[in-house]
Amino acid sequence: MIKLVLTDLDGTLFLDDKTISQYTTNVLKKIRKKGIKIGFCTGRATNSIHSHIKKISPDVVIANGGAEIFIDNELIYSCGFSAPEVQVLFDSVYRVCGSNAEITCDSEGEVYWNRTQNAQTSLYSDKSIFHDFKSFNQTAMKICVQTWDEEKALAIASSLGLEKVNYIKFSDVPWYSFYKKEATKENAIKTLSKHMFIDLKDIVAFGDDFNDIGMLKLCGTGVAMENAILQVKECADEITLSNNQNGVAIWLEKRIAM
Hints:
Helix 2 runs parallel beside helix 9 and helix 4 (83-97) runs antiparallel to helix 5. This protein is globular. A hairpin with a 4-residue loop joins strand 3 (60-63) and strand 4 (68-71). The chain is of the alpha/beta class. The strands form two sheets. Strands 5-4-3-2-1-12-13-14 form an eight-stranded mixed β-sheet. The chain has a six-stranded mixed β-sheet with strand order 8-7-6-9-11-10, with helices on one face. The protein contains nine helices and 14 strands.
């Protein structure tokens, strides 16, 4: 029996233009009326998805790839790099990738970027704050670095210790994300399951990218999008239509909403 629906956002619930269709919104409302809880499980920071949280009013938000858990807008769990750890990683990025390395940092409540607004890409919202990261005295839930090079990503993570850092590449853009080792979607879901007294077998999860693999394996039903990378499809229980075809809503309407 499904009691909680957890969905990734980019490439999953979002259309390619980063919106949520009205059809999907209506289906999620039907789900909630049946007493089933709705949750976002995303690598994004909450301040980059405020409008979507306001529109959908999810019961749960797992943000920054598992570094933060919110239930009914209340933060119940947080796991990030300390300010000294953050500076070690930044110094390593500039040493490994050069002085022009592009970096983003999700702190508690803000997103920082070492590029001006005009130079920024669509990786984040336009609400990021410029910072050169030469001296950054804040904790961080997540750090992202522009590179395709796995050896460079490994070197950056190793500067703090692989026992402390988890690093994951994006499948569609040349970036790697760096999290605290325990900050994963699957660990957050385990914490959430205990807090909400919902068995993992009663959770359905939707995803498309590398950081969704663990949660699709963990939850009772793991559903990959048609546009998902091969590794996600291989670990999923089922495959639904693509994000641009409202695949999450289509699956939910067939299984639950009718």
